[in-house]
């Protein structure tokens, strides 16, 4: 009996692996065709300035609208695109599309684009891609922010830093995304050619519930201030979190409390408006605007 159970379990196990594997391969093939078929779409999530209560920026978030599988999360297909090397093609498409959308917004509103570690590979000229897109679109370079994560810096930090320096020389801004999750060594932060740090949502979740997180928030805000970096807090969902955040000099707030990622069409009427709640009232009156 025990033996039979064991064998059955083994058969089920190999089937599961095979299915998972075949699914991965199928997805990979479909990924190759998806750009051509126009299955990718950018959604945008506004980032609000706590002083003015208006959106000063929107983050582009990639969506794959699969004809049969439905919406596939970037958490699934970005790693796949990275493994297959398709991320460079896809990433260039995202940059172009994000800039194109931003051209229909007020000039005071910027666009922030996630860039994968592989887009800094030696074989891919990201600086050339961005330079060409800036020239063709005519967008003011400072309106474009490129979001990187610490993982981009692991393999060949000198090379990536040189690319970031070149991007900044074009006038583009650089943000360090997901700050507070990785191996954030505070000592290297001072040497990175970046303009902004974005506090990760996992960290934001702790705000207002743990004293430790609140005092860390204090330390990060102080650090950002000393290093002359802009500070954006993402993943803000609750009033408790917002109350803690508003005590600090924060330049941008992003999260479901104000807006979810949405289509470019839905974003358009929102970006001129102030946040339609009294939530930011205290901050607004403090800044006197
Ligand atoms: P990210 O860059 O850190 O983006 C923020 C993620 O948090 C987004 O998930 C966003 O929808 C979600 N989010 C925003 N506000 C809240 C909130 O209040 N609560 C919670 N729980 N979540 C919130 P999304 O769109 O699923 O993207 C996941 C990740 O996929 C992104 O994390 C980014 O790392 C990656 N990604 C998305 N688009 C692209 C892209 O075009 N290129 C690359 N390389 N990566 C991308
Ligand atoms: Mg991001
Ligand atoms: Mg993030
Ligand atoms: Mg993230």
Fill in the keyword field for this structure.
binds magnesium ion, disordered C terminus, binds ligand C2E, alpha/beta, 289 residues
The average pLDDT value, as a whole number, equals 88
Series of secondary-structure elements, N-terminal to C-terminal: HEEEHHEHEHEHEHHEHEEHH
| Tally of individual helices | 11
Largest pleated sheet: 10 strands, mixed
Distance separating the two termini: 76 Å
Helix/strand/pairing class, anyone?
A: alpha/beta
Helical residue percent band: 40-55%
Q: How many beta-strand elements? A: 10
What is the 3D shape?
globular
- Radius of gyration, whole Å: 21 Å
Pick out the low-confidence regions: 281-289
Protein name: Diguanylate cyclase (GGDEF) domain-containing protein
Organism: Bosea robiniae
Domain EAL: 24-275
Topology:
Blueprint: H1 2-37, E1 40-48, E2 55-66, E3 70-72, H2 74-84, H3 87-102, E4 110-114, H4 126-137, E5 144-148, H5 157-169, E6 173-179, H6 186-189, E7 196-199, H7 201-204, H8 211-226, E8 230-234, H9 239-245, E9 252-254, E10 262-263, H10 264-267, H11 281-287
Parallel strand pairs: 2-4, 4-5, 5-6, 6-7, 7-8, 8-9
Antiparallel strand pairs: 1-2, 1-10, 2-3
Helix pairs in contact: 1-2, 3-4, 4-5
Walkthrough of the structure:
The protein is an alpha/beta fold and 289 residues long. Helices cover 45% and strands 19% of the residues. It is built from eleven helices and ten strands. Strands 1, 2, 3, 4, 5, 6, 7, 8, 9 and 10 form a ten-stranded mixed β-sheet that branches. β1 and β2 (55-66) form a beta hairpin. The N and C termini lie far apart (76 Å). Residues 281-289 have low confidence and may be disordered. The structure holds ligand C2E and magnesium ion (3 copies). One magnesium ion binds next to loops.
């Amino acid at each position: 009996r025990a033996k039979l159970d064991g064998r059955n379990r083994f058969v089920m196990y190999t089937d599961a692996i095979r299915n998972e594997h075949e699914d991965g391969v199928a997805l990979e093939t479909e990924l190759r065709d998806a750009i051509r078929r126009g299955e990718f779409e950018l959604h945008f999530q506004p980032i609000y300035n706590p002083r003015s209560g208006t959106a000063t920026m929107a983050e582009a978030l990639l969506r794959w609208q699969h004809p049969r599988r439905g919406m596939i999360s970037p958490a699934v297909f970005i790693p796949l695109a990275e493994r297959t090397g398709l991320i460079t093609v896809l990433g260039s498409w995202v940059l172009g599309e994000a800039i194109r959308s931003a051209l229909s917004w007020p000039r005071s509103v910027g666009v922030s684009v996630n860039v994968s570690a592989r887009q800094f590979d030696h074989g891919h000229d990201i600086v050339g891609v961005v330079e060409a897109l800036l020239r063709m679109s005519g967008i003011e370079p400072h309106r474009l922010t490129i979001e990187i994560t610490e993982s981009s810096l692991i393999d060949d930090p000198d090379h990536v830093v040189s690319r970031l320096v070149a991007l900044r020389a074009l006038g583009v801004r650089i943000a360090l995304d997901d700050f507070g999750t990785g191996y954030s060594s505070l000592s290297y932060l001072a040497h990175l050619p970046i303009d902004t740090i974005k506090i990760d949502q996992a960290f934001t979740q702790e705000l207002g519930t743990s004293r430790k997180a609140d005092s860390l928030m204090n330390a990060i805000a102080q650090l950002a201030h000393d290093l002359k970096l802009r500070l954006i807090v993402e993943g803000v969902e609750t009033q408790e979190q917002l109350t803690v955040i508003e005590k600090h000099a924060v330049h941008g707030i992003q999260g479901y409390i104000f807006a979810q990622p949405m289509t470019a069409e839905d974003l358009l009427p929102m970006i001129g408006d102030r946040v339609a709640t009294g939530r930011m009232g205290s901050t607004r009156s403090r800044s006197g605007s």
